[in-house]
Amino acid sequence: MKYGFFDDANQEYVIHTPQTPYPWINYLGNERFFGLISNTGGGYAFYRDARLRRLTRYRYNNIPVDNGGRYFYIYDDGDYWTPGWMPVKRELEQYECLHGLGYTSIMGERRGIRATQLAFVPLSFDGEVHQVKLQNTSLQTKKIKLFSFVEFCLWNAYDDMTNFQRNLNTGEVEIQDSVIYHKTEYRERRNHYAFFSANRPLAGYDTDREAFLGLYNGLDQPQTITAGQASNSIASGWSPIGSHCIEITLEPGEETSCNFVLGYVENPEEEKWESPGIINKKRAHAMIAQFADETDVERALSELRCYWNDLLSKYTLQSHDDKLNRMVNIWNPYQCMVTFNLSRSASYFESGIGRGMGFRDSNQDLLGFVHQIPERARERIIDIASTQFENGGAYHQYQPLTKKGNHEVGGGFNDDPLWLIVGTSAYIKETGDFGILDEQVPFDGNVDRAASLFEHLKRSFYHVVDNLGPHGLPLIGRADWNDCLNLNCFSATPDESYQTTQNLEGRIAESVFIAGLFVYTGPDFIELCKRRGLNEEAATAQAHVDRMRTATLEHGFDGEWFLRAYDHYGNKIGSKNCEEGQIFIEPQGFCVMAGIGVKEGLAHKALDSTRDRLETPYGIVLQHPPYSRYYMNLGEISSYPPGYKENAGIFCHNNPWIMMAEAVIGRGDRAFELYSKIAPAYLEDISDIHRTEPYVYAQMIAGKDAVREGEAKNSWLTGTAAWNFIAITQSILGIQPEWDGLRIDPCIPKSWGEFTVTRVFRGDTYVIHITNPQHVSKGVATVTVDGTVLTNNILPVAGDGTIHQVKVLLG
């Protein structure tokens, strides 16, 4: 069943019922201020860091689901309702939600009043703008009241939900004109506050939650709303909120609008106070003045649309497949930008209080957005590298506000360092900026211990070389890419972290996946060495890569597929000899992507085994058979019920590795078949089964052994977005950035006759028209640029900033 439809012309997903199978959300903001908003108005906002600078509260895993957000209540002669249906849940005569690029519009109509709530974060603005339009669609004059509502978080979201003995005594607000200022803890160590403004005179306000709701009421029936009258409450201790009451009279057919700004202000220490005890509101006033009337909102929204149109214009596809076009042109790159902004920190499945930015995650995410905003990708690389240790290891996570590594999690995830080489190489291939390698970058955030970025990459490479196990394969450490495969944890203690606990010395357990990643990454590091004139260094690195390839073939192949790992006792994991977990997806993808076993015919065997043993109608499961009980030598992977998450769930992040591996061996039909199995636009018709948003990827889908096969979880913030974008744009459509140009090497279904990709690359625009008259999957016969036939399939960098016509003939 469908619950909406794609509006490709307006780059929107249109939802026509508030009761979607799960809350379907969107993200607001793309620089410093961010918000999550659902199709019923739920969600929250924060400045830069979802844990340390949370503006509004949100209660995860709540009953009912998605209860709490930015709500606007309409009070109409005793009847009250909200345009997004929640939280009041009064029947609406009309409803529509438009999720666009960086904005959401929710419309509801009831009893002759149509209310539309528009929400977005303007460019270079530290706040959300909410515009509420009200139209009288009846034949009678309407006298109504509009009530706004937000509940303020006391900044540190974790402390806010745990430290009640303090927090129920600290809440403070100020009210001036039509603005509510939230200033909890501003009297002491904080120099920031939030405000919630309206651009109309008020008939009243509330800032105390208990006064607004009534102690035993919920958001569905606040006593202020049921009475139709604000109480002018002042929060003091307890829980501060922001609620405006505005009286509005509408004649038949008349329409009006109200602008609300939920903003964040940070004052210099010397400018904290306007007068003793009164916060300095100068910056808030300036922000509010930017949205004084309706035309201000229209202008800012137009600028936001232009911003996104420019970003998405960097890579566009024209093909026979509308679903493919919308994924490549709109929704996949949009999701890649959201994951760039937030890594894994804040979604409806990530609370924003723990993970921060991932070292591995952020490097992989970079692959999907570097072509859109290379200058911010450069900054991100430096931030990531700054959390690396001098021995080449790294913090697994860091906080975006402080840019310091998370000590609670620490390091020891032995694949992390290699991803810095992957991310940096992708950036240089996109931009040609080899100068980034000379940037001085701290170790562990200490500027007194800094080295060139190239030195960081070298230490990443040799972190693997210096940590090999008995078979010459990389030691896994606390985990490799699969954080739930914990071969050194051996935990029997409830609540003990699988990822950060190491109960046994970890110098035996090895990862075949890291071996594949090392061989895949090695050529990029070697090329960087050569381009810096370090030929001996390059030769030495090549020898290490060659030895790893040999070790993987000798000790990492199990006859029909690649092994996953060796455990603490030296026993095989992911082997035909295992009772459970005989084959894993990750090494089949990455080893073949690295070219291991291709000329020996082993790659075909591994991918055929993947098809025969792991594939389902909804994608490829992570391993098979699932683990039916807890194995201490394996850790968290065996703690999940069969078919969920890492225990034989469809972990969508690694499905594109198989697509890319299929492209390596030239099987274009298989590559695209696998792509369309998990691409959201192709799953819209099964939304009742899939449940999460039909316009973005989810991290996981329940596998064939699960009770709810095909059901997705953990949508939006997942490396699935970047890797699927790379799989479709570079491996299947075949437009690949290289050190000195764009390589053209498609691997497509034989039935495809032609398609066109417009690709902006280093300031030039290439319109690449690819024809396939012989209906092959792979193989470039000729490449012509502006009428000149090339001798190879790499488009040189023109450097003239103009448009170039490229004709590619497959065959």
Q: Characterize the largest beta sheet: strand count, sense, and whether it forms a barrel.
A: 10 strands, antiparallel
Q: Can you tell me the overall shape?
A: globular
Which class do the helix and strand fractions yield? alpha+beta
Please report the distance between the alpha carbons of the first and last residues: 41 Å
Residue share in helix: 25-40%
List segments where confidence is low: pLDDT < 50 over at least 5 consecutive residues. Answer: none
Question: For the CA atoms, what is the radius of gyration?
Answer: 28 Å
Number of strands: 44
- How big a fraction of the residues is strand? 25-35%
Mean pLDDT: 96
Strand order of the largest sheet: 1-2-9-10-11-12-19-16-15-14
Q: Helix segment count?
A: 19
Organism: Paenibacillus jamilae
Protein name: Glycosyl transferase
Keywords: Transferase
